């Protein structure tokens, strides 16, 4: 075979495979924009956790004691417990709407990483639930006679802690998204994981109210948030694939 015949030989099918360029953040931005729009259209779902938070805290002086010293002692723990329950109240719908209208299956088969899509949904949940609870907490602290030095730690601990609660709750919500009545099972799954966040969040406010250092508790909450941001979206993404495809 001559060199001319080699040069005119047909090309083989060994050309490199062209992989489309996928922007990792495009799925995040599109999901965030869609979910934030849907959230503002259903304002009742946004108001329910906040109304629950306000009503329960308002009932505390009526049901326990109106004395300032008693309320000041109970304020850090009560605010944190009710904030936790209010967050839990809104978690069942984190992925359920997308599951019921079929858009969750489209998200699972899309070329965008599910990790960033989960983070986008959790961020919307925190903006619609955790942030309003954090903003209104100082007002409720006044109702419960919280000492002045406890307000900044209260805001800081709730801002960090509610983010952790939303991230952890996304795992339970993903595991129960395919169940008709998964609210109780959701609570049983994630409540043990909420306990450390509750302990250190309430401890930070209590320590500050009593004049003790509280930076250590906030640092631990920050460590919880960093770990949850890394691990929780992966766990939630895997749980979604199991719930939808399994």
Task: Write up this protein.
The protein is an all-alpha fold and 246 residues long. It has one domain. Helix 4 packs parallel to helix 8. The relative contact order is 0.13. The N terminus is likely disordered. One of its GO terms (biological process) is cytochrome c biosynthetic process.
Please give the structural blueprint:
Elements: H1 3-7, H2 24-41, H3 43-63, H4 68-89, H5 96-101, H6 103-109, H7 114-143, H8 151-175, H9 183-209, H10 215-245
Helix pairs in contact: 2-7, 3-4, 3-7, 4-7, 4-8, 4-9, 7-8, 7-10, 8-9, 8-10, 9-10
Q: Classify the helix fraction into a percent range.
A: over 70%
- Our measurement of the CA-to-CA distance between the termini, rounded to an integer number of angstroms, reads 57 Å
Oligomer: single chain
The largest sheet is:
none
| Secondary-structure-derived class | mainly alpha
Output the helix-strand order: HHHHHHHHHH
Number of strands: 0
Rg: 24 Å
- Overall pLDDT: 84
Total helical segments: 10
Beta-strand share of residues = under 5%
Shape: elongated
Q: Main traits of this protein?
A:
mainly alpha, disordered N terminus, 246 residues, 10 helices, 0% strand
Q: Could you give a quick summary of the protein structure above?
A:
With 246 residues, this protein is mainly alpha-helical.
């Amino acid at each position: 075979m001559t060199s001319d015949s080699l040069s005119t030989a047909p090309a083989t099918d060994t050309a490199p495979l062209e992989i489309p360029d996928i922007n990792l953040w495009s799925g995040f931005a599109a999901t965030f924009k869609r979910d934030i729009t849907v959230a503002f259209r259903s304002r009742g779902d946004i108001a329910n956790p906040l109304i629950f938070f306000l009503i329960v805290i308002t009932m505390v002086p009526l049901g326990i004691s109106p004395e300032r010293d008693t309320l000041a002692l109970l304020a850090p723990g009560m605010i944190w417990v009710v904030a936790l329950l209010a967050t839990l109240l809104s978690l069942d719908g984190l992925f359920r709407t997308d599951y019921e209208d079929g858009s969750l299956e489209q998200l699972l088969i899309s070329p965008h990483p599910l990790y960033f899509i989960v983070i986008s949904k959790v961020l919307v949940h925190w903006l619609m639930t955790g942030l309003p609870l954090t903003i209104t907490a100082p007002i409720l602290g006044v109702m419960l006679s919280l000492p002045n030095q406890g307000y900044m730690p209260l805001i800081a601990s709730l801002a960090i802690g509610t983010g952790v609660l939303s991230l952890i709750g996304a795992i339970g919500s993903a595991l129960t998204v395919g169940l008709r009545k998964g609210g109780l099972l959701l609570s049983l799954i994630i409540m043990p994981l909420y306990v450390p966040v509750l302990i250190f969040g309430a401890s930070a406010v209590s320590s500050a109210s009593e004049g003790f250092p509280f930076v250590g508790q906030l640092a631990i909450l920050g460590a919880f948030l960093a770990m949850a941001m890394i691990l929780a979206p992966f766990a939630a993404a895997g749980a979604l694939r199991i719930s939808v495809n399994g």
